[in-house]
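User: Predict the structure for this protein chain, please.
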Amino acid sequence: MKALVTGGSGFLGHHIVKELVKHRIETVIYDLNEPSGVPAEGNIRSLCKYVKGDVLDYEKITEAMKGCDYVFHTAAIADVDQARKIPRKTMEVNVIGTTNCLEAAKELDVRRFLFASTVYVSGNRGSFYRLSKQTCESLCKTYHEEFGLEYTILRYGSLYGREPNHWNFIYGVCKSLLTTGEFNYTSSSDAVREYIHISDAARETARIADDQQFANKAVLITGHQRMKMGEFFDMVQEILGKEIKIHYAPSDNSPHYIITPYSFEIDVPVRINLSTYIDISEGILDCLKEVQKELDQKNM
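Assistant: Here is the predicted structure, written as structure tokens:
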């Protein structure tokens, strides 16, 4: 079995790669940036091949995809606020890039195309990021209808983990609070999120890739610990053992949802029930330790 992961050096992509090689699946990492952190035990690293490439390069992605049974398409402009500022580039990378990958998968008779989407597609928030993902989901469905290309749409909730990433929200919170003791949050304390640790999300992604009950369906991969952001910040404060200051700045013009990303829709996705998962408090503590380690190294 062989798989290709676009954006395989990114936050979500490289965790999916680690899950695939853990199951001894030959994996092609397709990304503009060279990967890091791929397991090196024994001959596991030999299962990985890195191809430097852009999803806008159809010939390059097609060549890299040859012989692959599965394609995990995670490459995208994935920051809601960034996408809002660069709509043309967002639509080009996310929509045209996805079209290139779908076309290559069709031509090469890939067994299943797994598309990394978002819970934002079910609502009215998310600006151009939401719009691009909605369009890509429609493309996946239409490629199946027209050409029989099997797909699974993966709608992720709020992902977090220990890696420093500009849209890894919890890591950013931990870094700000450890360095300044303050954090500016552009929403209200009543905003609700369902955070899921990146390791849990990647594990479930790899697990369902070959499961026929998820063929040609949209799947929700979100956390099981629904909480208000006020409660989240109280938890961080208790873990830190010191007072912190959170400056809330609610805005009616924000691209982010408050209580739920969902609005009425006919296409109801299947929700994944996690048999095991990393508790949010443990995940926060892990992020705090990683940030502190990073800060200590800078001060050496």
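The domain at 2-159+195-224+266-277 is CATH 3.40.50.720 (Rossmann fold).
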